[in-house]
Amino acid sequence: MKTVFITAGLCVVLAATGCSGSEAATPSGPTGPASPVQLTNCGLPLGIGAPPKRSIALEQNATEIMLSLGLADRMVGTSYQTDPVLPQLRSAYEQVPVLAKLYPSREAVRAANPDFVYSTYSSAYAPDAAGSRADLVKLGVPAYLSPFACENAADAIPTVSFDRIFSEVRDIATVFGVPERGEKLIREQQGRLDTAGQRVHTAAPSATGQPGAGPSLLWYYSGTTTPYVAGHGGVPDAVSSLLGARNAFTDVSQKWPAGNWEEIARRNPDVIVVADLTRGGDGDSAQSKIDFLRRNPVTSKLDAVVGGRIITVSGSSMDPSIRSVEAAELVAAGLRGFVR
């Protein structure tokens, strides 16, 4: 499992893909569901009597989903920014108070007097962060957690798919009484996925131009001494499948296993997808990964490194979020470029 240190787009404009970013939805007052919303989220019953007006998003992926739904005017807090905010959401983001650089404490969360709390990582609800969801619910504050990251693994959705990501967006839109905004966002994201997949499927079936089942992709998240790579069931699997490629480590059951360079060299992937992380650790930035791959005696001989077949995506796009569509677009653009 990938560690979130306390931590694991709608679109950055890509000339190569012809992609255009969606604007944040126009904010407006609560329209309200006809009746209270009742749902079971990660095994915890949540009741929302009326659309929240004082919500908190505890990290960036949750924040960007809410901003994309036009909910900045109903947010009293955000925290844990891991990447530059998507350009089309920046002005909306600036309207929201930042409660902490990392996760806010339980005291800071309670001081903001929220009526809804949302995170895509279970670490946000740790005792030394916002506190448990059950405790928040006892205080009358519904606390939503991404179904991919449930505290109890038995409650979690084991395999990421874009349909499941869209279901989470739909949940949040329903809670806030703006289902039409949710459906609009989902249609936009699905359209971008369709375009990305179609363009790659019309190109050569292998990144190297060789016939076969499609290129193998090493999804390299972090670390140099010990590389953390994508295993089975996460966003990298979903993107690889969409694009007619294959995740080089999909046979490993963990979503983010610790790898080793000798085994990576043995598998010799056609393409390496590197995560660009801004947290400043060893092998976090995309450039530090690329520099390491080029100078290390083992990795410098990989076909993907020798051939320059390296694609960069944001680290947060490798987690289930609206940025995951951006990862599909960037990888699709890179694969098309490699077969020309």
UniProtKB/TrEMBL annotation:
Keyword Cytoplasm on entry: no
One Pfam assignment: Peripla_BP_2
This protein's UniProt keywords: Signal
Keyword Signal: yes
Signal peptide: 1-24
Domain (Fe/B12 periplasmic-binding): residue spans on this chain: 54-340
Highest taxon above the source species: Bacteria
InterPro entries in the cross-refs: ABC_Transporter_SBP, ABC_transptr_periplasmic_BD
Family: Belongs to the bacterial solute-binding protein 8 family.
Protein's recorded name: Iron complex transport system substrate-binding protein
